Structures are given as structure tokens and as C-alpha cells.
Amino acid sequence: MIHSLESLRTAVKGQGPKKLAVAVAQDAEVLLAVDGARKLGLATAILIGDEALIRQIAQEHEIPMDCYEIIHETDKVQACRTAVKLVRDGRADVVMKGIIDTSVILKAVLDKEIGLRESPVLSHVALFEVPGFDRLFLITDAAMNIAPDLEAKKHIIRNAVKVAHSMGNETPVVTCLCAVEKVNPKMAATLDAAALAEANRAGEIQGCIVNGPLALDNAISTEAAKHKGITDPYAGHADVLMVPNIETGNVFYKSLVFMAGAKNAGVIVGAKAPVVLTSRADSDETKLNSIALALMIASR
Amino acid sequence: MIHSLESLRTAVKGQGPKKLAVAVAQDAEVLLAVDGARKLGLATAILIGDEALIRQIAQEHEIPMDCYEIIHETDKVQACRTAVKLVRDGRADVVMKGIIDTSVILKAVLDKEIGLRESPVLSHVALFEVPGFDRLFLITDAAMNIAPDLEAKKHIIRNAVKVAHSMGNETPVVTCLCAVEKVNPKMAATLDAAALAEANRAGEIQGCIVNGPLALDNAISTEAAKHKGITDPYAGHADVLMVPNIETGNVFYKSLVFMAGAKNAGVIVGAKAPVVLTSRADSDETKLNSIALALMIASR
């Protein structure tokens, strides 16, 4: 089981070379992240985009282009479709976003003809290494689904559980985070949490333990849960923290990065292959971690 | 201006002795917190509750009862009303909850005849000292208002602004936290954030700068805001972080305490005097900080 982001990178390296399909690759930040992954021995890449621009940026940043295959495609929508097709045809393992709107690449991923559609819901999964904790946490969904309903939450959990499985955690504990521990009809998140735990017990959500409603302290700390008198044996043992809405997830995510000194990775899951969307705000290390996480998921 | 929880305690001490009215005081944890505040020179207290039980607990924990006035009252509802009346009559400065449901004490606080009603909305304000930051943050509302509408948010902001003023921050920056920086009609929090900033510009919310929508990183870090190309001159300068719903606030609060090593205080504001509701899950230091914050607010 993967317990740190370093061990994640090491495990990916040990699986042998993988391939990224980078859509609209003419961007310095993206090319530097891809080349970082190559230098670490994580993966090589097929770069789809404007070849002249890609070569110019590579030269400016001393990125050796002889390590890469380039597919010249100036149309950005078409570049996305080509990247997705490469993954569908088994020529690459992971789709990575270059300098293109997220919506465009996801449209290609979801395309019925050439796409990688699998789960009815695509979702964002963030992997966090928090100082002081001896295990990693998956947080979902901090970036994509705004206010998922109960059915969407089931898919979001299933998507995250597959990520946990890919990291060697065969029965992750998925905690549905709320502000309180008791079901309160005035708090929709608590009703959903109880329904999701029930759906898990009924076999509708498999390969994991779903619990909640629990507040964050009682989700991650057995001591806090004991102090509060919570009897759920999985309280305090969360591996996956499912947030009820995007604001909760986003503030949680940012508080970990900017206030708790946490390290992280993030990918879009729910399609047949993961999609890496690094952002300019990500550190170089986060970009590398995100690529590593996507490659780990792709190898399941 | 108060920049740390230690300087908050020092400032309260410097204001001279204040008085807590403790409702239903027959509880060891509560009495120990009150006596901690007395030892630090922050305040003394009038203890309202079952006198025999209070004296027994005090003896067991070596709390010197000659420092306290006790009002014997075995009826818990009546004990709450007495505590509130003591504050209304100027005999005490702050109401503190003992071993009684929060709803009971807040009912007394809101009582039209004997209560302390002021703002139409009571709200919870948490004060945080986060390692690595040179200023304190107020977070509201992480514990009381579940899903406040626009009008309620205006009151929540006004309540928090008074707290900031009491700590010497004359024009706090109030950032309405969202998952993104742009108004998105699919995200109600962004619409409210823009409306709140506009209400501030129109003079409807005074004594502060309200901005948003902003994600947490761009609310607290000028570097992150600059990197993202945000032009709002107050981005990165938030003093008050207003969350859109209780789940966001609660997860944020708990992440700071349990994952970022932050120290904190919390009170209920919006009445003529603050109400201290320490919880069993609070550390001794947090309980003291909460008492100190309430006393600081009471002295404004």
C-alpha cells in the first residue's frame, strides 16, 4: 500500500515506462512538467499540438525533443480528440491537458464515438500527504462536481475507490464529511451521508467501507472519535474524504496546501483512463505527483 | 491591533477584571476553564446552578470557591435566564454555557423580555492563529448557521466585523470564500459573494471591505492572487473568511485544528453580549482563548 507521495512515485517508476498523451502541448509549464516526469523515469509522452511552437518552447527551456514523439495538429479541438484516441487505442496510458480549456478536453474524453466514457460521472480526486499523518488521504470532489446529488455521490465514491484500489488499499474507508455526526433533516449532507453508508451496506457501493455523517476530526482521528463517544469502529480511519459540495472541498484542499504544508496530487477520474489537468497554480512537485497518480491509476 | 492569541489574552488582562455569568455551572470541565481564566487574571465569574454540586466538583478539583459568587438554581432553564439577566443588568459581561443544551441558553439570550437580542441573526465566529501567518483570521460561520441566505450573510458579516473592530482592526477585509474567482450562476455562493461585495460598496455593510468571490488561496496569499492575475487590491489580505455554508466552515475549522496545528477561539455573537460555548472537544487552551475573545468583544 502506498503511504507517501514519494512511495507513489517510486512505485510508478517500478512499473516500467508509461506514456502520456498531451493535448495542445505548446505550453512551457506543461512541457516542463512532462519533462520532469521523463527525467524521473515515470513516463515519456506523445505531444499533440503546434509542432513549430512546441519545438521553439522546448529549445528555450532546453527540453530534449528527441525523447518525444510529436503529432502536429494546430486545431485545438482536434488535438484533444487525437490525445484521447491515442489512449483509447492503447498507444498512451493517460490524457494530459495542455494549454486548452478543461471543458474542451473533457468533451473529447466523453465523446461517444472516440472517447473514454465509463462512469456516468467524471470526478476530481486529490491525493494528500499531510504532515503528522502516516497515511495518505483522497479528497473528492474539490474541483469538478458543484453540488452532487445522492446518485452522483455514489459515482464519485466509486471513482475514488478505484483510485484507492490502484494504490493497494483494497478496502478503503470512505467517510462522508458533514458538519455534525448526527443525521439532521435540516442538513442535506447528513441525509446523503446516511444514505450512502446504507447503500454500501446493501452492496450498492462495493470494495470499501462507507461511513458518516462525521465531522472531519472524527473522520481522521481515532482519539477525537473516542473522546466524542462515537461507536462507529471506522470513525477516525478515513482514507477517502468525500465532501458534500465543491466549496467544502475547495476550501479544504486549499487549507491543506496553504495552511497545513501538505503535498498533493490531483486527477480527473471516471473515464477509462485518468486525465491530468495541472494548473499554473500547482507547484512543480504537485504537477509531478499528479502525473504519477494518473500513471498509477492507469496501471490498475 | 491584536496579532496573536497570546496578545489577545494580554490585552484582555490589561483591561481589568471582567465577569462571566456561567449558566448551569455544575460541570468539572466548565469550572476548570473558568478557574483557568481567573488564574490568568482575565475574569472572575458568577456561577449559576446547583450549589451543592458546584461545591462538590470544586472540592474534587481544588477550585477555590471563595473567589466565586454562586447563585443556587436547580432549574436549568431558569439558570440560563438568570445568567442572561445578570449580563443585561450589567452585573456580568459575558454569558458562558455550562452543562446545558446550546438551544436552551440561546433561547434565553433571544428572549424578548429578559434577553440580549440585537442583530436579527446570531452567528458563530472562530478566531484562528495559523502557523506561518502573521495575522489572525476570523472564520464565520462554522458552527451555527447551516445554509444562510444573502440577508443572513449580511448579518453574519456585520457580526464578525464588530469582533474585528473589538480587536483593533478598524477596517477588516471580509472575503466571501467560494470555489472559484468568477461569478458562476451554477454556484450560488459566487452570486452571493458578488452581491455582498456590492452591498459593501453601496454602504449597506459598513466598517469593512467585502470582496469575493475568491478561493481560499487568493483570499489569504497575495502571492497566490498575483500569480493567478487577480486585480482586486484586497485579494490575499482577508481578515474575515466568510464561508458559504456550515460544511465548508466546519471542515475548514477542523482542518486548521487537526491538520495545520492552528490555535483558536470561538464565540457566538450577534446579541448585546457574546456567548461562550466551550465544547468538550476543545483543548484547555482553546477554552481560555474563547473566554478571552468573549471578554474582548464585551469590552468594545
Keywords for this structure?
homodimer, 300 residues, alpha/beta, six-stranded mixed β-sheet, five-stranded parallel β-sheet, 11 helices, 41% helix, elongated
Largest interface, chains and sizes: A-B, 42 and 42 residues
Query: What is the H/E string of chain A?
Result: HEHEHEHEHEEHEHEHHEHEEH
In whole angstroms, the N-to-C terminal distance of chain A is 13 Å
Could you tell me the number of beta strands of chain A? 11
Could you tell me the strand content of chain A as a percent range?
15-25%
Write the SSE topology.
2 copies of one chain form a homodimer.
Chain A: H1 5-14, E1 18-23, H2 28-39, E2 43-49, H3 51-60, E3 69-72, H4 76-88, E4 94-97, H5 102-110, E5 123-129, E6 137-140, H6 150-166, E7 173-177, H7 188-201, E8 209-214, H8 216-220, H9 222-227, E9 240-242, H10 246-258, E10 263-269, E11 275-276, H11 284-298
Parallel strand pairs in A: 1-2, 1-4, 2-3, 4-11, 6-9, 7-8, 7-9
Antiparallel strand pairs in A: 5-6, 5-10
Overview of this structure, please?
Chain A is α/β, with parallel strands linked by helices. In chain A, 41% of the residues lie in helices and 18% in strands. Chain A is elongated. The A-B interface holds A 130, 132-133, 142-143, 146, 177-180, 186-187, 189, 215-217, 220-221, 224, 227-228, 243-252, 254-262, 280-281 and B 130, 132-133, 142-143, 146, 177-180, 186-187, 189, 215-217, 220-221, 224, 227-228, 243-252, 254-262, 280-281.
